Queue: 3 jobs
Job 1
Amino acid sequence: MIYGLGAAVVWGMADLTAAVTGRRIGVLSLAAISQLGGLVTVVVLVAAVRPELPVDPILLVPVASGVIAAGAFLFLYEGLTRGPIALVSPIAAGFAVVTILLSVVFLHESLTGLVLVGVATTIAGVLLASTDLRDVRTRGKTLQGGVPFAIGALVCFGFVTFLIGFAAREAGWLVTVFISRAVGTVVLVTVALVQGAPIRSVRQLTLIPAALVGVADSLGIASYSYGSSVGAVSVVVAVASTFSLIPVMGGVVLFHERPAPNQWLGVGMVMAGLVLLGIAS
């Protein structure tokens, strides 16, 4: 549980920093620079620990997770820059439900009645938070702003965390994180260069925060992966997914966001569902 909590703290700070920085330099530049910063962090950890690299087909799993992670980060950063952060981050945090369901199906981890309640509560919360019911009644609008991208991030991160947690048990947590991060970085930097993102012209005042987003994210993934390698994936991911509390407060304080009452209820239900998952696990 302590490793899941560590992941929650650094992921929360990474999301808040990404929201601020992404609005200044653009999503693709943020994605490329942050992933490079994150890769450097993992390389330093690899150099310090010197883990053995197994020659095993299991290494294809973190390769797949790296590709999916590239899409997940693009969804997340686009959602955070479009906002509101107070909705995007909690919705994306619902990835724990996808990870837990995959863990039940493929790793045969058991679900108690309380876990099922937690899953149902989280899903219902995501649905409530996704739409301002006032706009639905007056203008028929749904899934505004960054919400659709948050849902995309939810699904992608659910698969990423499951694949990393699964591979960490067989190949080791650090090897898994390194491969996944390296593949994701190559994909995102390539996309940024092809699309002509102004990476080189980014000023130092925004370059450093963008890189720190990746550093924090990598530290969070390392903490999550190590926790998954020594404990139940469902427990670690449930605790780690509470990271969205930090961006929620940041969105309200820094950007003066005011979601609709039903959306606040949805955020509360997502948090409650994740707490239930943590307690039950």
Job 2
Amino acid sequence: MKQALTQRCYAKVGLERPRVRGGEDFMQDHRGETRNTIVERLSRAQLSPQGHAVRKAILTAFAAGGQAPSVQDVAHALGLPFTSVLKACRTLAAADVIVWQDDTTRIMSAYPFSGIPTAHQVLLREETPCYAMCAIDALGIPCMLGQAVSIRSTCFFCHTPVTVDIKGGLLHRAYPSTLVVWLSAREDGCCVAEARCPLMNFFCDERHLHAWHATCPQESGTSVSVVEALEVGKAAFGALLT
């Protein structure tokens, strides 16, 4: 019923809803979870308790300072030897839980946080800024931290500034109100950060998303509302610090 209603809404404005290749709809039956989610990757990694402690310490450091911690920082915070944390970071990178630069032994990013500025800035409590790797990650951060946040981004098509405020895990405000998100299903690439994250962006409205998709029709995925995208972020990242 919901799917048919959504399709009729698209027809009213003369658009065909962009869909996942093969007719799949990520919002159907699984609350928008995409394949190869962070939860699935963590499950496959079968991390030790120490590995999970390192993972959580990295995320906590990102939230506190808005930037990637060093291996030394994580080792000091946990009271662990440098070599133990280094080994854990390499395991996390192999599982595509963090983005890692092995030659410099540096943590670059840790889903959902980006260690370098992106189009998706997330303002945490006391206006501490951090960056998300994509629109879905930005929406997942408040769910993971249990904090109210304000997301500042841009429409991927026209570059108009957009704002999303989340409070209590719910959408408080979105500007413009017609905002939508592209949920990528691309599977190629060595990691999600390279394959999908650059594509999962905000758009002012369906017309702008459709105009962008017309320039790259080979991209598989689906468009979702901000409320639906928030559910995707919650499912992906909500339990990462529990």
Job 3
Amino acid sequence: METTEVVIVGSGPTGLMLARELSLAGVRSVVLEKLPERSGLRKALNLQPRTAEMFDLRGLLDDAGVRSIANVPDGHFAGLPVPLGFEGWDSRRPYQVTIPQARVEALLEEGLADGFGAVVRYGTEVTGVTEVAGGVEVRTVGPDGREEVIQAQYAVACDGGRSTVRKLLEVPFPGVDPRAFGVVADLEIAPGAASVPTKWGSSVDLFSRPGPAGHMAMLLPMDEPGLYWSVIMGPTPPRDRDEPVTVEELEAGIHAFFGDDVRVSRVIAASRFTDASRQVESYRAGRVLFAGDAAHIHIPVGGQGMNLGLQDAMNLGWKLAAEIRGTAPAGLLDTYSAERHPVAAQVLANTRAQGMLMFAKEDPAVAAIREVLHGVLTVPEANRHIAGMISGLSIRYPIGTATAVDHPFRGTRLPDAEIDGTWASSHFVEGRGVLFHTGPDDADALAPWADRVRSVHVERMPDAWPDVAGLLVRPDGYVCALLPADGLQESLSGWFGEPASSPVGAAA
């Protein structure tokens, strides 16, 4: 029987990001993938501004930028012709990074192979998950048909909307059944069609072409001549969810929006999806946790799905590592579900609303709602609110104390700022928490936690961080304590566990 510390089922962006986060903390993991090799299908196509910030925290954004197609300066809500602006959220990254999911997966997997000690086992199917004393046993069948058992302290299901792990454990997946059905495809368009776009612009341009009510079609140019990413959606279900996507099916959907002169010369890859909206009630079932589409699914509007899973992984990774290393304070691991479940529930709500507005256009009442919302989104405060929701920049976790005065930073992402010639984000690459402080004695007080929290002394707090003498920030970039309102040692113990008996020197 093989042993490891964490078994991760699924090698999509969520599973790979989680493996990377665990490796940063010195936790061993095995990533199991039932596909024989990576599909290369682009699927999702963007990093939202908050996810771009989180990639920056780990030194991944430059590599993602090299592999990206474009930076898009805005977002959209239900295709309404008012761009969502990201500038009002104090972000250095007020844009979407257009990078196909396949390239995100390649980036993360290459990083795992580069000294992180975790590998993806392709062609390995999970056939059973059983909780045992002190851990779980995961039964598998490998590409050669050989059955094996892996014993671990925890397992994490990152295996998608049709999660095998979730089904094996009979975990309910309540929600809303599909009303619209779609196809996402990588395809080549033959030269000569004047109506297809040739470059990226505003997000709202994606929906500017008229078409049949209740239908949608997008053609987005990639960075190779003639190569496009296409999404087609409408109310008619396929005869079989698993039936192959044909050229004729794709052309019929595209012609309705882009004209009959568009010819699909080759389908590189294609898959089906729906607007079903579902979420597990808890992201933890004993020693098994759920992340990404295994925990929640929704219609892919607004470009939120891959981002939601990547952010799940960033939230979970350091907490699970602390639990395994024995440094986690009581209840830390349970904050994963408590924090991330409401975030995903909000995404499910906004995507259901967008789906209704986009796929019920023949209803006069829906047309009236669209007209009203169009006007609302021209109001700067309303636009900022929706932009924060879609981008993830407005996420605020319920972090606080009974006595501390509330502060705009408490529970929110740390706004990046320049500190003594470096960016604050650069101090999170190791995956530790960070204490930014001005007090001369704070580094000494931090010493017993120096294996978990980095000390960064600041001569003067930047103007972007007003009214604080110090900030304690979690490894995922969210502010969990403010000095002097919160006691430093109490905050360190509350988030990073008991002090080490033999403290190492604080990192400068």
